[in-house]
Amino acid sequence: SPATAEKYEVVIVGAGPAGLMLELLLARYGLSDDSLLCIDAKPTALKSGQADGLQPRTLEILKSLGLADEILCEGCQMWQVAFWNPSEDQNKVIERTSIVQDVAVPARFPHEVTIHQGRIERILEMDLLRYSKRGVQRNTKLVGVEIDEDGDAEFPIRAEIETEGQRRIVRSKYLVGADGAHSAVRRSMGLKLEGESSDHIWGVVDLVVDTDFPDIRRRCAIHSPAGSVMVIPRERIATGDYLTRLYVQVPGDVIPERDQQSETSTGPPPVADARARRSQVTEKTIFDNAAAAFKPYYIRPKKDGAVDWWAAYQIGQRVTDNFSVKDSKSVNRVFIVGDACHTHSPKAGQGMNVSMMDSYNLAWKLAYSVHGLTPANASGQPDAILDTYNTERHTIAKQLIEFDKAFSSMFSGKMGPSGDGAGGLTHDEFLEVFSRGNGFTSGCGVEYPENLTVDRNLSEDQNPIHGTDYLSGILRPGRRLLNVRLVRHADGYRRDLQDDFPSTGRFRILCLASSDLLDSQGVSARALTALGTSILRFPKTLVEQVVIHPRLPKDFTWTDLPLEVKEHSEMSFYSGYEIDDVYGIYGINPTEGALAIVRPDGYIGVISALSEVNRAQGYLEKLVRTV
Ligand code: FAD
Asked: Which is higher by pLDDT, 351 or 597?
């Protein structure tokens, strides 16, 4: 009965990468085992297979959580991509057309890392145990969930869960479905994954290979006359061998879609045929097709037992219309994250990343709501901030689906000799889609639209930012703060700026002082004085300040600074010119300076001129309760 039901602030269903990221963050943000429950139907983290790639932006975030070291040291750092295409020389069959950088945009870690999904889950789960005694409640399945305000208005979510045959009811204020592509939460809430499947069938296999192919330790896109293969070099395993992942196109899939449409009026074969073909794929089919595509090189498992995992899949892209469900008072109560809201082909390595990033986006907003740290809306609920989860992540999911459609159909297309387009696709076309998608596939080009937490409402004459190359670091609300290297004034520490923005749930005011910093009546001193007073209005644990200064006289000492800088920022006061040209990278004129408020997840919320401290303060007042 409701009187005896277990009650939590937040229940999370599913402990894949998305669910674990959310549970860990909420536990770090102070939700104890009494307020937070995460269940998973499986007895352990994933043992083999599924996702294996981490984007540069995900690496930045794992670093901001103190979780990147093992991944960077023991994962496979993927720096280059080689493109192999049909050769005009019959003896060669295929030849390397080019090698490019895998990540072509500025990033703190300008490469991807491949490492098994289960290992990421284990890293998240082990860290979780520092904050939670229970960790994930495993072998526990969600049977169904409903919003039942009449049963208990304070804990309106009623979920039925089952552990080893025993059913029980848990109630909560919020519930998050991180339960994967077949999400029971999504179904219970009547949300639908909309989209389509293509007729392209691929096999994927993780193994230790024996091969004479020269680029086996680079990421490769191979378009051979016998079909396409993507090679993903992987981490070293306990035997001392290195794993390789192969994505292999399987039979019946080598006819390019364009040709089919032009040669027959009936178009591509029905998708049902593709499903039948998928069910016929075996480990042997995958190897036979891989062997054909690699010719004249050989490729085979190194020995018996060298295959770690394999699967066959049909390419499709689907997204749910809404990532949250509200109660009768329009309060967001149930959310879905990860594969529960979007599914797509795995080759661009997006699945685990986008899923964890959904949770990363939701976690701080949920924590602010649960702890009452954000102002209440008209109905008395601290809810407005939660609306922005759907606004932001649905936008990204739609972009992901569009990119994936373009990328996967190009990848399944056929290329003629020397990529000249005779077979339907040119090397340049493919490279163009690959490179254009780099902002997206790296995670670094993500840009959230205008909303309560992203304020771009800045007139041209008030805008202190010069330039528009946002991927290269020009500051822009909605984009992540690019890492720069600078020198801390107090101790000469040559530091990465992102290390002053750890994911601890705080907003940060980034003040790029102007060159008149030492003038007590100058614009910087006045701004810093006003900010000093302003910060005091917010809880100390939620807003802090980082100051960067342009070139100052050689005889400058710390005591020359306005009182406000000294009081708040000695250990986050940096020279912005000694390593990187920070002002240049961020698009700021050092004589003018600028303010930027960075959200707890590292995305810029608002920008203002130094003389417009009120603008920055107004932004914070909408999101953070004053004391
Ligand atoms: P999941 O990892 O699916 O986690 C969902 C969790 O919810 C699971 O632990 C599950 O046990 C639990 N769960 C489900 N239902 C319930 C319930 N009713 N009650 C309690 N718990 C429940 N991505 C790539 O990038 N490359 C690949 O090659 C690739 N291959 C894949 C192959 C397969 C067969 C699958 C299924 C996925 C693959 N993916 C791949 C996708 C990638 O694994 C996902 O994008 C990623 O795991 C999404 O994370 P998630 O946490 O949202 O969901």
From this structure: 597
